[in-house]
Amino acid sequence: MHLFLNGLAASAGGGLTYLRNVVSQLSERRDVKATLAVPPLLRRELGDRPNTSFVEMEVPPRAVRRFWREQTMLPQLIRRSGADVLISAGNIALRKSPVPQILLSRNSLYTSRDFFSDLRRRGEYALWLDASLKAILAKRSLYWADRTVAPSQAFADELHRWTGRDVVVIHHGFDRDAFVRDPTPLPADIQQQLDAAKGCLRLLFVSHYNYYRNFETLFRALPIIQSGLRNREVKLLLTCKLRSGENPGSYRTESASAMIQRLGVARNIVELGAVPYNMLHLVYGASDIYVTPAYAETFAHPLVEAMSSGLPIVAADLAVHREICRDAAVYFPRFSHEQLGEQILRVASSKNLAQEMSSQGRTRSREFSWSRHVDQIISLAAELLGSRIEVSSGA
For the chain, does the N or the C end have fewer beta carbons within 10 angstroms? Predict the structure, then answer.
């Protein structure tokens, strides 16, 4: 079977993590051939792989232009490749696919009232309009695709409420051996910052800066945490820089930076910057607690990475966080910095609780598998292809 994977929308975060791992799995299989449409930069990163060919396409920065380019150019490329099934990995489906199509829907912003309210509160009306247009396309995409796949039951339920369409649940995967395989040390500047935080309570949040990851609630919690620790200092490790132009997308960091100064917590925040994915396990290993205040999410790969690394987790009380973490996390109302601070202090002050959460997390992380994820995607593609053949034969 020949799969055509549209990965043109993968630019940061979970999208890149997904493609890196899925492409690795597909290239090792002998029962499928894959053609991938990717931006040139990602093409260079992925390199040459067996059973895999690539189509490079420049991606326009604006969603409407990218949508138009994909809708007009991809059908011809799919036919030329000889592919049997299209997998649209960027939340937007092809309106008239020449082959059966699986849509991978993994962006909760389009269904998040919190996100649209947040944009209006910040006066980000251009972003609000852009997100609204994308939401219209994302919603229509569930009707254009033959099957839609969500990475969690919580998000599948949300999509069903939004559109009335049935959605298949296939959890994203994780491969612990692959995650920790690379022995390359961290860049010297990052390692120095981690070394300087030894002896402190080290909180880790893996994300580039954006609004829906709710950084500000975490910043507001830092004075509460510091006050509760008495003689120990808290350090929040961030895998981003809070400077405009140093994060994907057009999210502005000025208000977050001003908040840090106003709260007097600049000394508690360590801006590591972007950490190469193959080295990220070293940052988890240098941390004590993983924290995520995100108010919108569909799966969250860092949660599984943190669990595998033995970190107890403090997470915003979202259905998807509870689905992924179960008892490996404690939860707080997503906009309550007071309860976020209290939960972090609770975990930090109880060695038994932290150890139990760590054990639960390691066990839970082993339930996610990229190999099983790809098996399920291929089975769904084979089912669609068989149905198309049966319909054609019946006609």
Answer: C
